[in-house]
Amino acid sequence: MLNKKSSFKWSKLYIVVVFLLMYAPLFYLMIYSFNRGGDMTHFAGFTLEHYQSLFEDVRLMTFILNTFIIALLSALLATVIGTLGAIAIYYYRSSRQRQMTLNLNSVLMVTPDVMMGASFLLMFSILIPIKFGFMTVLLSHIAFNVPIVVLMVLPRLYEMNPSMITAAMDLGANQNQILTRIILPSIRSGIFAGYFMAFTYSLDDFAVTFFITGNGFSTLSVEVYSRARTGVSLEINALSTLMFLVALGLVFGYYSLRRGEEKRKLIKQRKNKEVI
User: Fold this and answer.
1) Could you state, in order of their start, the residue ranges of all structural domains in the chain?
2) Could you say which architecture CATH assigns to the domain 60-241?
3) What is the arithmetic mean of pLDDT over 109-135?
4) According to the 3-state scheme, what is the secondary structure of the chain?
5) 91: which of 36, 160, 235, 261 is 20 to 30 A away, CA to CA?
């Protein structure tokens, strides 16, 4: 018993240390976003002037808008494509074909971003010549987000009760009715998870976007990188603080959706037991 208690304490300490190492630099950056001084060497006093200058920076605000437009559109389109792809994989009759498709999907997940960005650069330059800008960034973000959505949706499909589909077919439901009234409601949590993950990946992507920006179009990560080469201003600290709050809001929003769905499932299970 003592060994279990001591190991439990060590595990808690390990978790605390890991989170401190991860979040301490972030909180340090956030605190100095309110620094009246011009650097992060000493805190000269509280001010909001860096946030004011951030919102007055038209160029940076344009790139922020570009980033969110790309993230929202790419996540939406990747969710649609990835969900349909996961359903297609689920209905594969051959287990070998299903496994091969999943392996290819996993390869895209572990491929280094630099290699992926270079491959998109070659594709849009030679194979499919497209003027670099909004469209190339959007297509590349959709491409690397689709495998993420597939991995989020597919487990929900395997958790689905297949007898519901069989019963619907016996009652004369067509494929469209089965998809919209049975499959999609059953995997709704996986679809939302895939969308949030795709949105997050697109929002902070740098390596892939760096290769295929052009024609005056860029995203926030590329712009921050360009500015950091000449020295990071506290305006970037303010921007990072706001981005962290947005990400935190997304996490809590997804968590609330999951909790709400779990509660609805529990209520439904209780009602079914009462009926029985």
Assistant:
1) 1-47, 60-241
2) Orthogonal Bundle (1.10)
3) 88
4) CHHHHHHHHHHHHHHHHHHHHHHHHHHHHHHHHHECCCCCCCCCCECCHHHHHHHHCHHHHHHHHHHHHHHHHHHHHHHHHHHHHHHHHHCCCCHHHHHHHHHHHHHHHHCCHHHHHHHHHHHHHHHCCCCCCHHHHHHHHHHHHHHHHHHHHHHHHHHCCHHHHHHHHHCCCCHHHHHHHHHHHHCHHHHHHHHHHHHHHHHCCCHHHHHHCECCECCHHHHHHHHHCCCCCHHHHHHHHHHHHHHHHHHHHHHHHHHHHHHHHHHHHHHHHHHC
5) 261
